[in-house]
Amino acid sequence: MKEIIVRVKNKAGMHARPAALLVQTATTFVSKVYIEKKNKRVNGKSIMGVITLEASFDTELKIIADGIDEDQALQVIARLFEKKFEEN
């Protein structure tokens, strides 16, 4: 199991479109993916889970991956956050 810390950089936060992109990306990996905000952990492959985090601009999130492709999963997911989900 590995984890990284990311920050929401797109101004609109994790609304439906970036949440869907995150879930679509996470589901391409065999590893389990979790997202934590403070003490709340959700399944990173669940759109409802991701949206319930209510992650606005500049929110810090912990991404956790556990499985055979965990390194690649974290790398690709981190890139989504770095690129602001291609929003701005």
Q: TL;DR?
A:
The model has no long low-confidence stretch (mean pLDDT 96). It is built from 3 helices and 4 strands; from the N terminus they run βαββαβα. With 88 residues, the protein is of the alpha+beta class.
Describe this structure in words.
The protein has one domain: Histidine-containing Protein, Chain: A, CATH 3.30.1340.10. It is built from 3 helices and 4 strands, in the order βαββαβα. A 4-stranded antiparallel sheet has the order 1-4-2-3, with helices on one face. Helix 1 packs antiparallel against helix 3. The protein starts with a strand and ends in a 6-residue tail after the last helix.
Walk me through the topology:
Elements: E1 2-7, H1 16-26, E2 32-37, E3 40-43, H2 47-52, E4 60-66, H3 70-82
Antiparallel strand pairs: 1-4, 2-3, 2-4
Helix pairs in contact: 1-3
Key traits:
alpha+beta, 88 residues, Histidine-containing Protein, Chain: A, globular, 3 helices
CATH class equals Alpha Beta
Question: What spatial form do the alpha-carbon principal axes imply?
Answer: globular
Unreliable residue runs? none
Class of secondary structure makeup = alpha+beta
The CATH topology is given as Histidine-containing Protein, Chain: A
Average pLDDT for all residues: 96
List the secondary-structure elements in sequence, H or E.
EHEEHEH
User: What is the name of the CATH architecture?
Assistant: 2-Layer Sandwich
The oligomeric status of these chains comes to single chain
* The CATH fourth-level homologous superfamily: HPr-like
User: How many strands appear in the DSSP assignment?
Assistant: 4
Proportion in β-strands: 25-35%
Number of helices: 3
Radius of gyration: 11 Å
Strand order of the largest sheet: 1-4-2-3
Number of domains: 1
Considering DSSP H and I runs of 4 or more, what fraction of the residues is helical? Answer: 25-40%
Q: Could you give a short account of the major beta sheet?
A: 4 strands, antiparallel
Q: Cα distance, first to last residue?
A: 32 Å
